[in-house]
Amino acid sequence: MTNKTISIASIASIVSIAPIASIVSIVSIVAIASIASTAEAQTQEGLYRYQDATQLWRLTDNAAGLGLDNSENRGYAEFGLEHRSGDYHRVQEGGQRNQLFFETERYQHIGSYLVGYGHFRFDMDRTKDRAWADVMRPYDSNPFYSGSSVHGKYDQQQFDLSAAISTIAIPLAGENVERELTLGARLDYKVGDLSRLRDPRSRSELLDYKIAPGVTYSFGNNTVGLSGYYRRRKEKIPSMTTVQTDPNLLYYQFYGLGEATGTVGGYSGYQREWVNHQFGAELTYGLNLNPQFSTLNSIDISRGAEDVWGQYKFSPGRYTSYIYKAASRNRVGKGRLLHAIDLEAEWQQGYADEYRQQLIQEKDPEKGYTSYRYETQITYRKRQQLTTFDASLHYRLNIVGHASQRGNLVGHASQRDNLEETGTQGSVPHYVATYVGAKAQLSGSTNKHLLPSSELKHNRLNLSLEGGHGLLKGRLWIDATATYSNATKADLSLADATTEVAQQVLLPDMLYYDANYFRGQLSVKYLFPLKLKGYRSTFYVKAYGDLISAQHSLDRKTVGLTFGLYN
Amino acid sequence: MMIRISISCLVCCGIAAALLTSCVDFDDATHAVSTRVQLSLPSEFTSGGGLGGHDITLQFANQRYVAQTDGEGIATFQGLVPDVYDISCSWKITAEEYHSLTGDAQVISGATVSGSVNQRLISQDNETITLPTSLSIDRDIIIGKIYYAGSKDLNNRTYMAGKYLELYNQSDDPVDVSGLYIGLVEAESTQAYTLENLHEDYADSVILLKQVFRIPVDANHLVKPGGTVLLVNSAIDHTPNDTLENNLLDADFEAKDYSSNPVQNNPATPALELIYSMYPSISVMNLVQSGPCGVVIFRTDDDVTAWPKTYPYGKTAGNQWVLCPKRHIIDGVECLRLTNKTPAVDVGTKRLYSEIDAGYTNINAISGWNGEAVYRRTSEHAADGHPILTDTNNSSNDFQTSTTIKPREYDQ
Lengths: 567, 412
What we know:
heterodimer, A: mainly beta, 12% helix, globular, B: mainly beta, Immunoglobulin-like, 2 domains, 7-stranded antiparallel beta sheet, 6-stranded mixed beta sheet, 4 helices, 27 strands
């Protein structure tokens, strides 16, 4: 379990330097120029995949698990372009999209006692032919949003940053059983902006952050982890502008499943804030009998309460959500075979209380000052109801190689240093050479609106086969996935099917929900060493494509190209 | 090892099952309600009047429910969505019925029984609501149409010059409108006086007017039955500027513009007398394109220029509004502003008492400029064929909007 130990007395100093170390970690992520990975290209990809496959705590919310994952210092940075087109999409998602992104992540040991993780992604995209939603989340979430019926282009930018830090395992005074503790914390921070490029021009701004402290306690081969988190998400449309004012331009405010009010000039003076406070906790249990078997099981529950605010604290309603998650991730190793069996399930229940409010204008008889406030006259309890579920079983058989077999890693000075730091000295690094797998996923959603009663239900079963292999001694990776998706249910029942929203959004979307499809994904990644300013790094270029061919003559095509390096 | 796997899986499944069973209970959602509306006849009715067979309307936004009263005057609404409703009813009685029911022998052409309760919260099941009614003698001259929205001209610029007001003679006899006053109701975005403030300071006896005009008294101006009086700001043909605009060359009176940047006036059109304007630089009718845009007509022998004026409630400086006694008012129309809130029209911003206008009307654009006029529906036709416009003292029932209706035109 433990590879390095520290004394209890040093915990205080660790805690005190944690914020500084976190910043150092973040800086190290973006400081690509200082990266000095000299691992050879042939195994770099396979090594990365192996560590991704075996380090299970990184898949949880518990940052303290970083100290148990024994990750080497590793990371990558890549820049990519992506183009998506086709008509297999929902109305509020928009059609063709061109995207540019930069992404980097790094696992890094900081000093002798801390492990850090950082991730950064920047997305910039333009989506065409989008309408009816000026917010970032029109589906399966807060129903009180707004949008224009006029299709237009939308530009979106997002900065997504994550930083986590953990202690390595701290030994506790034990009797017969070895007992250890790790402490950690994670910060996810995202800012974004969604701008409509056609009248009425909205600009939705996003601030989304999550703070998650965590702790793990190990006894023998068992580990129990507990983390809690607070997430605050604020999306805001501060005001709207027009360039060429059409006097009859409608702007719609939604109240859930086809219930919407379209007002001529409704964008005038319109402003909204959606502020969500979410609290959650995750309980994790792990058993590690490496290399033969390891399992990590977690359950997660969270509650979110999202207020919607307008002028003078006007509020059309409040959205409350409960999310339950359970996951079991298991790894069984036997010789060169590594079996990965993952079960994941997520269940969400949400409801929106709708308010009918009245503006109260109060005048001070002394000074003549006027004050405004909204008074709630009726609360429609749970007028909009939502249930979503997503369950999957994923099996992957990895065929693992030893880096020494290729004679290109062990013996390399910098890599040896890493191994010494992470405590894998003496062991031989493994890499994934080939894998095959299969996945079954069942997902669905039920949206219900009361008074009047409308309901949308759609479920889907996806069955996938996947495989990947590193050719040319691991320099050329080919990954392929084939998926058949069966729309097991797609029912829509509306109180009034003649409304604009029904005709232009909900009914057209039924083609999307009702369509079975075949999906093929292919990715080709070529790795090559390159020496820059005296440092030799492994660079790569990846081309990928994703084709969905669906019923009702619908399709979606995605192609992308990324260029990056391991650091 | 297998035993440990089984135990861990069982523990996880157990906890997961416990979580999943503690799910949200959707059964306590708000449900539909039933309500009963009890009709109460006007106090002037001394010999009954028949409580049964009258339509009671409940309206919220575009949702409209109608139920008929039974012999006891109760209308029952089932499966109602709890909300804040405007409740109303109205029916016409003939002159003979009026005499019979009230015992009043005055000569009239007919009367209207109407009642309304605005913004009534209906959220309790099996609640009984009393709807009081009042009696109003049919009026000769009424406000028939108001065009205050304006439009966008061919260059996509705001166009305000084509705004107008129209009066209509409902009666079977010609009516002389000379000396008739037209008052534009206070229309500040922050109300100078709310109805509560008026109640507190003036005991519901006055309304606030920002401008007062008068039809000249230098000559009689007879309006034939079914005839109209067209009052404009610019008596020219506006149709070349925008297709939503009208030809106002034949207007009866024009509010002359004496500002430094005037709209085009027509010297051939008689001037509407400006009695008072809150704004020293505005001499035309200040019809606010987005609303509120309430209008009243009244007659009085008083010197209106001598009527008291007031600052906004609680203030001792700033703009001043004329305090118009409501007893002089012949007709009034409450035009409220559309908002992007729910409900889209805030009835709390009403300026006129329910005796003047129990409801309100509005255009369907928040900022205006969409070329819509509000005008009365046609309820029936007189013996000579001229339309009798709906006048139930409730603009919510009486008025509708159109972008194609022309001056002096009404639905047939």
